[in-house]
Structures are given as structure tokens and as C-alpha cells.
Design a protein that fits this description.
- The protein is α+β, with helices and mostly antiparallel strands.
- The protein has helices at 3-16, 65-69, 92-98, 137-148, 150-153, 195-215, 223-248, 252-260, 264-275, 280-289, 291-296, and strands at 26-34, 37-44, 47-53, 56-58, 80-89, 104-107, 113-119, 123-130, 156-165, 173-174, 177-179.
- The strands form three sheets. A five-stranded antiparallel sheet has the order 6-7-8-5-9, covered by helices on one side.
- A hairpin with a 2-residue loop joins strand 1 and strand 2.
- The longest helix is centred in the last third of the chain and has 26 residues, at 223-248.
- The protein is globular, with a radius of gyration of 21 Å.
Length: 298
């Protein structure tokens, strides 16, 4: 998936549904003036603009300016992974010969994390992440450099550094301000992908904001309750346990080896984790069913 195209498609669908999409506006401040009355300040081409609104949805990633300005409790430093990614310029021939048309994952390179290489036509996005406290950006960079080698490092054209959450924040709504996606701490704790979580939390938020606005009462929103019921209970609760199984117990590479051998329980569990087409509780029970063979692989 090309993320820029996907985001543009989402913006176009929002506009078709009646939303006013304002591009190139960078939010610099958000204040709650009174219940259901907010003032948002944004910069557009150097000009400061203000917008008054009845509800705010924080979707500005992690960490979040919106959450900080509106007084949401800060997440623990244990609740996110640190990551670094290089964009490496290569020729088509180099990409084809070294990476082919497959994504590459490297487990065992870091504690509680992994490295990856996603080939594109003339570029490779190569990165590494970890939740282990000792595996912060400097040590992650050194390990990624070791995986790639000096020759590829000469062709790095862009470097990205991110913090990726893997645990929901303690508060997701204050008055009529709601947090979604990474801002809410919603990303998969096993592989740290976040697109499904962004869409799911946005769906729950939209439903509750609409209800609060219709009744002119923020208490009409049951966002936190519905998030715990629809996202935490069937997904996050089990993901956090599977994170400990895969990384804490070192079962990730063994699970992938079993999948390569054709073990359907592990294959179906991985499919559920990657697609979220079914509750992750099913993935957990499938891995538990395969546990004897996973442990024997040790």
C-alpha cells in the first residue's frame, strides 16, 4: 500500500460525504473554552488561522499535540516502541536481485522487536523497532546499520524516526474531545501496524461524536466504553498476551518456522493478526493450540 495515495483517497471520500478538507494546515494550539466549545489554531503558509468547533478528534499521531493541549494524561514510556527507518535509493536491478517482490523481516536482531525491508521499484524502506528500554534509537540505528551494510548506507536518501504506541491511553475522551488511532495508543502490539486500528477507532469515534452533537451533550458519547468493548476486549487484551509469547518467550521465529511447514493453526493465527478480519481472541487460541509444537521447536 502506498500510504500517500491511501490518505488522499480517505480525504476524497470525506469530502464526498460533506467534510471540508483543509490541506497544508498545521495545528499549533487547541483550547477548550467551555463545554462543547473549542478553539483550534493552525498555521497555513505562515498565516495563523482560528477555527471554533463543538468537538475535536485528535488524530495527529503519537505523541500528540492535541492530547497534550487538552490535558489528556500522558502515556507511560513503557507503552511505545522506538523505531527508525531508512529510505535507500537503488537501481531496479539491485532491488530485484537482492529483495525480489517480497517483504523481508528479521527477528532476533533486537529484543522485543524486529527489523524489516520493504522493496519498491527503485527504493527499499528498511527499518527496525523495539519496545525494550535499552533498545533506544542510538542502539537501534547501530543494529540496523549492521543488518544493511556500509554499501547500502551510502544510498540512504531519507531517515524517519517514530514512536509507535502499543497500549491504549488511560483516557480517550474529555468533554467532547476524543482520541483515535496512534493518538489513542491504538496500534497492534505484535507487529505495530496501525491502519486497521486507525479506521476502527475513527468509526467508533464518529458514531459517538454524532450522538453527542445531536443531543448537544458530551455525556451522550459512550466512546471509552465502546472502545474497551469493541477494540480492547476482542483485540488488545489478547494482543498484549501474544506479544509476551512471541517476544518475551522468543516464540516468533518458531511460529514462523511452523507456518512454513504448513501448520494451519499458526498460519490462520498470523492471518488474523495481519488482517484483523476476525477477533484476535481467535488468533490467541489457535497459537495456544499450537503451543506444544512451538515449545518443542525450542
Amino acid at each position: 500500500m502506498v500510504r500517500g495515495r491511501y490518505d488522499s483517497w480517505l480525504a476524497s471520500k470525506a469530502a464526498e460525504a460533506g467534510a471540508e478538507v483543509r490541506e497544508h494546515h498545521r495545528v499549533v494550539d487547541v483550547k477548550r473554552l467551555e463545554p462543547m466549545h473549542y478553539r483550534v489554531k493552525a498555521k497555513h503558509k505562515g498565516e495563523l488561522r482560528e477555527l471554533d468547533c463543538r468537538a475535536v478528534v485528535g488524530a495527529d499521531g503519537f505523541p500528540s499535540l492535541v492530547a497534550s493541549k487538552l490535558g489528556f494524561p500522558k502515556p507511560s514510556t513503557k507503552d511505545f516502541a522506538a523505531s527508525i527507518q531508512y529510505h535507500i535509493q537503488l537501481t531496479e536491478e539491485q532491488v530485484d536481485s537482492e529483495y525480489g517482490d517480497r517483504v523481508h523481516f528479521y527477528f532476533g536482531v533486537v529484543k522485543w522487536g524486529y527489523a524489516w525491508a520493504f522493496p519498491k521499484r527503485t527504493q527499499v524502506a528498511a527499518g527496525i523497532l523495539s519496545v525494550a528500554s535499552e533498545e533506544r534509537l542510538q542502539s537501534l540505528k547501530a543494529k540496523l546499520d549492521g543488518v544493511l551494510g556500509l554499501e547500502k548506507l551510502r544510498n540512504v536518501v531519507r531517515v524517519e524516526k517514530h514512536l509507535i504506541p502499543h497500549r491504549l491511553r488511560p483516557r480517550l475522551q474529555l468533554d467532547c474531545a476524543l482520541l483515535v488511532g496512534d493518538t489513542a495508543g491504538a496500534a497492534n502490539p505484535v507487529h505495530w501496524g496501525g491502519i486497521w486500528h486507525a479506521r476502527k477507532t475513527a468509526e467508533v469515534a464518529a458514531r459517538n461524536v454524532a450522538r453527542a452533537l445531536e443531543q448537544e451533550n458530551p455525556a451522550a458519547s459512550a466512546y471509552e466504553h465502546e472502545m474497551r468493548r469493541e477494540v480492547y476486549a476482542p483485540y488488545f487484551r489478547y494482543d498484549l498476551v501474544m506479544q509476551k509469547m512471541m517476544y518475551g518467550m522468543g516464540l516468533m521465529r518458531r511460529a514462523l518456522a511452523l507456518a512454513a511447514e504448513g501448520n494451519m493453526d499458526v498460519i490462520e493465527a498470523i492471518d488474523i493478526l495481519l488482517t484483523s478480519l476476525e477477533p484476535h481472541s481467535k488468533a490467541f487460541w489457535k497459537l495456544l493450540k499450537a503451543a506444544p509444537r512451538l515449545l518443542l521447536k525450542a
